[in-house]
Each structure stands twice: as C-alpha cells, then as structure tokens.
Amino acid sequence: MTNAPLGTGVPATASTDHDHGLLGAVVVPDRVGVEGLEEKWAPVWDAEQLHAFDRTAERGSVFSIDTPPPTASGSLHIGHVFSYTHTDVVARFQRARGKDVFYPMGWDDNGLPTERRVQNYYGVRCDPTLAYEGDDFTPPHSGGATSVKAGDQVPVSRRTFVRLCEQLTAEDEKQFEALWRHLGLSVDWNHQYQTIGATARAVAQTAFLRNLDRGEAYQAEAPGLWDVTFQTAVAQAELEARDYPGHYHSIAFHAAGGEDVVIETTRPELLAACVALIAHPDDERYQHLFGTTVTTPVFGVEIPVLAHPSAEADKGSGIAMCCTFGDLTDVQWWRELNLPTRSIVQRDGRISRETPEWVTTEAGRATFAELAGKTTFSARTAVVEALRTSGELLGEPKATQRKANFFEKGDKPLEIVTSRQWYIRNGGREMPGRDLRGELLARGDELEFHPDFMRVRYSNWVGGLNGDWLVSRQRFFGVPIPVWYPVDEAGETRWETPLVPDEASLPIDPSSDVPAGYTADQRGVAGGFVGDPDIMDTWATSSLTPQIAGGWLHDTDLFERVFPMDVRPQGQDIIRTWLFSTVVRSHLEHGTLPWKHAAISGWILDPDRKKMSKSKGNVVTPMDLLVEHGSDAVRYWAASARLGTDAAFEVGQMKIGRRLAIKVLNASKFALTAAPEGAAVVLDPAAVTEAIDRALLADLADVVDAATAAFTDFDHARALETTETFFWTFCDDYLELVKDRAYGRGATQPDGTTAELTPAQIASARATLALALDVLLRLFAPFLPFATSEVWSWWRSGSVHSAPWPTTDALRAAAGDAPDAGLVRTAGAALSALRKVKSEAKVSQRTPILAVELLATEVAAGQVAAVESDLRAAGKVTSPLAITVGTPATPDGESLAVAVSQAELGEAPPKG
C-alpha cells in the first residue's frame, strides 16, 4: 500500500457522533510552514465573527474578562504581549469549554502620558487662558522631532490641545489593534471603548456624583503631594521613593536663657515655614523643653517644642523641625498636634513672592525678601548663606543620600502644597459611622488571587493607607470633574456648595457647559458661576472599566449578563492602584466585588534581570519579533511563564516555540496522509486494538485531565508544559514506532519479505493518529492558534477555536482496560537503544539489524514483547527479538528500562 501523494484529497468518514465536522476529503499542502499564517487566519476569524460575544447568553454560561486597556501613548512593548497572551489563552480555553466569552478591548487614552506624548509629538503645550485657534490650526511638528523642549513648545488653547490628544491617540490605537490582531488575541472587536470616550465620561461622572451624594466624595483644602513639573497633585498610590542627594545642616534654634537647641535638616530652605520642634516624649534630653518655645534662626519666629511618639530619638540630634510642609511626617504632626499652616512653597515649586505675616523681625523679612520667587534649590543656598553669616549654622553641611518622594512619571522630588482637591473615601481615613477599611480588607479576602501569594500585597496596601484617594488632577486631557460653583455677589467662589448636573445630561464639561438656572454670560462674574477646572485622575476612570465595558447605565441587558465579571488580568505593580481602586468603586456603588478572580502577571526582565519599562528605556517593541519568529512562537514564550512569576526576555524560548509550531504542522501532515489514496480518516475508538495504540490514548487522556485542571486553576503554563511534553513523546517515540504500520508495511522477515499486517492492525494505527491529532490540536489551540487553525482546515470544517475542549470519554473507551503504564515510554526507549547501536557504528539508520539481544527489567520485557512487531519495523530488525530479564544500566551505573546487550548489523542499503 502506498501513501497518498501530498496535497491529494482523501475521503474521510465518521463513525461516531463526536466525529462531527470531518471534511469529505483531506487536503494537505505540498509544503507546510508557519510563514504567513497570521495574515491568512486573522481576517478569517474576523469575517466569521468567531470571537463575537453572544448577547443572548445567560449569565451562568458567560465568562467575562475585564481586559486591561493599554495606555495609548506611544507603542506597545514586549511586556504587553507577555501579559495579554496570558489572558488570551484563558479566554480561548473558556470558549472551548462552552462558555460565551465576553472579551472586550479598551484604550486608556486620557491622562498625563498622553499629554506628554502630544507635547513632544506636536511641539505644543496647553494654556487654558488662550482662545480657540480654530479647526484649521496646524501644530509646528507632527512627529518629526524626538522631543521638543518645554521652552520651545507653542502654547495652544485647551480645546486645541484636547483635539490633538484625541487625534494622536486615535492613530496609536489603530497600530495597537493591528499588533493585537497579528498576535492572535481572540478579542471581540465589536466591544471597544476609550477611557476618554463619551460613554466612559458619562460612567465616570455618574459614579463620582453618586459618591458625592452618598458622602463618599468630598473636597478639602489640605496639604497634598504636588509635582512642580507637571503642575498637578499626586495620589499616594502614584509615589516612588528614590534616593536623592542632599546635605545635613546643623542649625541652632534659641531657647529661653540662652540655650541653643540643635536640629539637623536636609531642607533648610523651609526654615521660614517651621511651626514647631518635635522630639520623642521619652527623650530625656528634651523633657525640660516640652511646653516651652524657641526662636527660629534667621527669621526670629517663636515656635513651640512638642512631643510626638513618631519622633526618632536616634536620628540626628533626636529633635526635628516640623515645617508646613517638608514631608508626610510633617503633615502627620501638623494634623495630630493641631499646628498652624505656614506654607511658603507655591504650586510652581518656588518660594512665595510675598513675605509672610508671621515673619515680623526686620532681619527675618529682609532675608525672606532674598528668597522670594526662588526655586527651592536656590532658596536653600540663600538660607544656608544667611545661617552661616549669622553664626547659626554649626559646622559645614555633610553630604548624604536621602529618600524623597517622586511622582512615578516625574524626575523632581515632590513638594507638599496646600490646595483644594477632591477625594473619594477608600478607608485611608476614618469615615463616620462606617469601617470602610475593614470592609475593603474583607473584599480582598473574598477575591480569588492567582497566584494566591499576591493577596498579601492587597492587604498590606489597604492596611497601610494614611489618606483617602485624591482623584482631582490639574491637567487638561481627562474626564472633567462634573460640578460648577456659584459666585456670590461679592465675587467670591462658593467652593463649599457645588452645583451638580442631572445624570441625564452627562457627560458634561464645566468649562463649556452651563449649569441649570444660569446663562453662558454669567460665567466668572459676580452672581454667576464658575466650572471646576480640574479633571479626574486617570485611575478614577480606569477603576470603572467593568462598568464602562459592561454597559452600566447605557446597556442594562449587557451589564446583567457580564457583571460582576469573572476575571481581572493585570500586572503586579498596579495592585495598589488599578485593582484596589476598582474594588473600591464596585464596593461603594454595587456592594460587591467587580470580579471573582484576579490573575496577576509577573514582569519581563531584560538580560540584566531588570524589569522592562518604557521609563528605563530597556523595552523591546514586539512587531519585529512577531514577524521574525511567528506569533505562535512569541505566544509560546509568553505562555511558558506562570502567573505572578517574572520571566526573562528570551529569544531562544521563542525559537523553541517556532520549532514546536512547525512540528505540529509536520506531524499533522504525516498523521493525515499516512493512509493511501481513497482511504478514510476514521475517529472511531472501536478501531483502536493494538496495545501501544491503546496505551498512547490512555496517556493522552491523562494529559487532557491534567491540562484541564491546570487551566481551571489559572495555571496555563502547566497546561502547556503537560501538553508539550506528551506531544514530543508522541512525535519522537510513537510516530516513529507506528509509521510503517500506518503506511501498511510490516516488519522485514529474515528472508527479505515483509510481514503481512491485518487490516485491523493498520486501522488501529490510523485511528489512533487521527484521535490523537484531534485532541492535540484542541489542547494546543489556546497557545498556537495559527498553526492549529491551519491543520484543522486540512481535514475539519469550522474552526478549531469553536470546537469543544477535549474530553476523555472517547480516549478512555479506545484505551480499554488499563493498558500497561509506561508502555509508550518503554517502547521509545527500546527504539532509541536500537538506533544507538547504529549511531555508534556510524552507519545509516536504514541498516538492518540481523540479530539483537535486549536486556530489560521484568516489567519492560513484557512491554517490549507487546510492541515487537512495531519495534522491529521501526528499528529495521529482520529477526525476532531476544529479550533477557535483568538490570540494564549505563556505563556509569544509571538504571535503564531496556538496553541492547548484543547486536549483529547487516549491510547498509545503497543510497538513493
């Protein structure tokens, strides 16, 4: 019998119900490869709406995903490919398990990253005081400059700036979508949203107004962290503590009776803002000073000496100056000790231009006049010089490295500035009549974290909060705070009585829309109104992604089918921001978790084992990798890493993935073309009769159980590893052993003739190949969607991605009653031992073995005997196998199941 020519159609028949979908003929290309599969199959999936969500699905049959909306401000990097692949393999598994998967895509396009990109890309900056330039305004640059210095950026109106932000993010999103499609994400592209879109604005503003109505949102004039570069307030979750060079200065304050009290500080420029000296209540050195006052050097302001348990007796001189405000400890002391506010650092990072009223001495006012309007750096130099002149600087400054708070996207230390800001309660401060912190900790206990050890990051963050969530930002491209304020007849803005819109009118922009009861000409005048100038923190919108994507407010039917969602996939570094803030909003609005599971990806590390990030400049853009290695190969690298585990960027792992995808194609080609022309592809378990065929399918059934359990437990890496390990055994051992039988050829006899095979023996091999291929394609489909789609199309109708996840019923039925465990592995070891004889003799593997003796363990001896026919055919053994029971071992003593103890080789066949 001969193999059908490559590319020839072979009729296929089905004998059981599970065979549904077999084509009438098998058509395998003459040449197979991974090149071009993305361009071939991605459009087909889209045209067939293969991944579209079924809007009629009941909630119990839905698996909904709160897909992370990537920041649309530049380019995706390999870390995105890594984590989004993790989500996609789960989505594909759940779809195969019969779930209707809701898998939307969002674009996080508002906020500071977009503004910075627009400033550099177009060479502009926003000046909200300017009038609109008109629709025909052309920016000075259009991506040609790598970066435009702030001083060279052309000021434009807010309306123009926002229009440019929208224009650039639209282009970025097109590129992102193209890359995601090339990667093979099974996203439902009918469900997309933007965090700056009308729907997102309406959702964010509605949620905010409801927070306000319930007392969960409030505004306060309070000290807060401020970035002087970006001119905006910064939330606790956005902080980074970094080393910053500085100097310790020993400064003498003056107590009654002529005693000097020496403090050490790295920020002498705040001396005029000093409101107290603080020491630990148990510090004996300062007991006599508590309750008294001292005078500040240079400025001559009288301040109290107070006790507080957070003062560190072993740091410096053990007593510190409390200024309003140098750091967060100052804020704590100011609040808990009810100290006055004497701020001198302004929003622009410079010292107040007006001499404060609390500085009353002539010398102090003269010194302050020298500081007015200076940067904190220049002011520090001036104050140190004044202290040196007055003799109140003791010794010279000593260099040190101090920890300073930075905005995660900034490059200058944050200042603490008093300003009016909006907050949402998050358990960081006491809420009257409610233990909100306890409620949110309980939500963390309720949520299923994958891996579970990530749970502690949530609880540690919530337990350590020291303030409510600051949600207002002094920027331009974002969701506006949806309130106005009345202006009284004296021209004073009444911040404490905001005017709120009706929900039906949302979204609104207070800078252009007018509150009910007013007219546009009353904006900014006595008796009129003003709009809130701020926007919401980007997390204040992103924390509502389940509601935005799920249709809350505008599509109730959809929302009831998908919310609460099943899983939130995200990075470990934003547990404290995105994950926690989403839990806060859902808890406050719906009284529930936003999702049941949180799947936390690890980081991608560069060759130096450092986290890849745009800010560090060590990221790799993925499209070239996808083109060079193939999307399946890159997906394989990503999916090989478990959740919560950092993974190295390894091109070598991608090459392994490419080899695997190619092997799937080639092995499938053999399995589907082993039968002769005119033969049928059969998926009938009853056709499997040979021991090794039954053993293979029993092993495969175990793989299906293990992979299913791993996927169910969000351990996609274990599912891949289990499947891949079996597949290579299938290729290296089983295919080689049954190749001749599948072709209809028996072992060569001593007289040179070929042993006759029964039709049942041949059919058993072919049915096993088809059954195994059918299952393996489904197991690999979440990881290698393009290669498996290609193979499926050769012999099956529909798509492998709409086929059900494999079950073990047919495999167990084919395997029968408990075949020998390890039979395939032992047979493969025996074949390897036979081939080793030829390799060591440096002869062709086609060389016949005229006689051979095998040494095998008792178990292995029986297994080898059970596969003798296939083993002789594969190993080109022309005589019966002589098997002796014993204890085979390698030369260095390693135990083996089977080994060749003696062999006689024949003449190698002629080449050609």
Write the layout of secondary structure elements.
Blueprint: E1 10-11, E2 25-26, H1 37-47, E3 62-64, H2 78-96, E4 100-102, E5 105-107, H3 112-122, E6 124-126, E7 154-156, H4 158-183, E8 192-194, H5 198-213, E9 217-227, E10 232-233, E11 239-255, E12 260-265, E13 274-279, E14 293-295, E15 302-307, E16 319-323, H6 328-336, H7 362-371, H8 376-390, E17 398-407, E18 415-424, H9 436-446, E19 448-450, H10 455-463, E20 469-470, E21 472-473, E22 484-486, E23 529-531, E24 535-536, H11 538-542, H12 545-550, H13 556-562, E25 565-571, H14 575-590, E26 595-601, E27 604-605, H15 623-629, H16 631-639, E28 647-648, H17 651-673, H18 691-712, H19 716-743, H20 759-780, H21 785-795, H22 809-815, H23 823-840, E29 849-856, H24 858-866, H25 868-875, E30 882-885, E31 898-905
Parallel strand pairs: 3-4, 5-8, 6-7, 13-15, 19-26, 25-26, 27-28, 29-30
Antiparallel strand pairs: 1-2, 9-10, 9-18, 11-12, 11-14, 11-17, 13-16, 14-15, 18-20, 21-24, 22-23, 29-31
Put the structure in a nutshell.
With 912 residues, the protein is α/β, with parallel strands linked by helices.
**Structural Rg:** 36 Å
What is the makeup of the main sheet? 7 strands, mixed
Secondary structure: number of strands: 31
Q: Taking all residues together, what is the mean pLDDT?
A: 90
Low-confidence segments:
1-19
What's the total helix number?
25
- From the spread of the alpha carbons, the general shape counts as elongated
> Beta-sheet strand percentage?
15-25%
Amount of helix: 25-40%
Counting helices, strands and paired strands, the structural category is alpha/beta
- Distance from N terminus to C terminus (CA atoms, Å) equals 21 Å
